[in-house]
Amino acid sequence: MRHRMAQTITSLILVLAVACTPDGGSDVSPPTTINAGTDALDEQARGASEEAEEQAEETEQRLEALEAALDAGTFGELSGVRRDAATGWLGERPLDRSTDDWEPAIAADPKTPYVYALVTRYGEPKPCPGNCPVPYIALAVSSDGGGSWSDARPLCACKGSGQFDPIIEVVPNTGHVYAVFMIGFNVVFMRSTDHGSTWSDPIPTWGNVAWNDKPVLAMSDNGRHIYVSWNGPTGGILGWRSPMTAEPRGPRRSS
Q1: Is 221 exposed, middle or buried (0-12, 13-18, 19+ CB in 10 A)?
Q2: What DSSP designation does 177 have?
Q3: Where does residue 54 fall: left (phi above 0), alpha (psi -120 to 50 degrees), or beta otherwise?
Q4: What is the total count of domains within the chain?
C-alpha cells in the first residue's frame, strides 16, 4: 500500500451518469456536494499536508532505490527462484524488465482477445514538457489474450502532480475501456472506445479535494452508469444524481 493512513478514513462513493453521444463523446453529470464545516476543512487540510509529505518521501525513496540498482547493474535481473506455473497457467514474465513499475491493474474483454494493463511508472523521463507527472500511469495493450503486448505509453501525459493508483475495467456489452487513477490527490476518469488507442480527457470525479486515496471502479453492463469509490477524510460526503433524470437526489453524509 502506498499510504499509511494516520487517521480514521471513510469511503466516498460517487455515481456518474454517462450518456454517450453519437460522436462517441460523453456527458457526465457533476456530483452534488455539501459544505463541510470549519473543523472538517481543518482536518482535511492537516490530512492533505501529512499525505503530501509521505507521498513525496516515498517517491524519492523509490527513485533513489532505482538509481542505486541501475548503478549496481542489478536492475531488471530475474531472481534465482523459479517455479513451474500451476496447472492451467502459462507462467509469468515481466511486462517490461527495463522499467520500474508499481501498482499494476489489468482488465480483459469478455468477448474479444483484448487485454489491458496499467502500471505506475517511476524513474522515466517526463512524458510532456513543463509541469508533467512523475511518476505517470503507463498503458500496455494485448490483442491476442496476453500472448504479446504493445510498448507501454502514458495513459494521460497531462499536466499536474504525480499519478498513482490505476484501475481499469472493460464494459461487458460494448468493449469500451474505462480507467480511473489519481492526479495528485484527485481521482479522475477516462475512457476509450477504440481498444485503448485514444482516450477521453480526464474528468474529475469530485473536483479539487484536499486528499483521497485508493479508487475502485465498477459500471453497469452497458457502461452508462459508473461507480467510483475511494478513501476519504473522516465524515466523508456521498453525492449522486439520478441516472435517468439527472436530477439531484440529495447529498448524503457517510456514516
Answers
A1: exposed
A2: E
A3: alpha
A4: 1
**Tally of CA atoms within 13 A in the half-sphere of 123 that contains its CB:** 17
pLDDT, position 189: 94
5 within some domain: no
Residues of the chain below pLDDT 70? 1-48, 78-82, 232-255
Task: Quote the cell numbers at residue 39.
Answer: 473543523
Residue 214 lies in a domain: yes
What count of Cα atoms within 13 Å lies in the side-chain half-sphere of residue 62? 18
Whether the CB-CB separation of 31 and 22 falls below 8 Å is answered with: no
Residue 194 located in a structural domain: yes
Q: Which amino acid is at 4?
A: R
In a domain? residue 83: no
What are the residues whose beta carbons fall under 8 Å from the beta carbon of 72, sequence distance 6 or more?
A: none
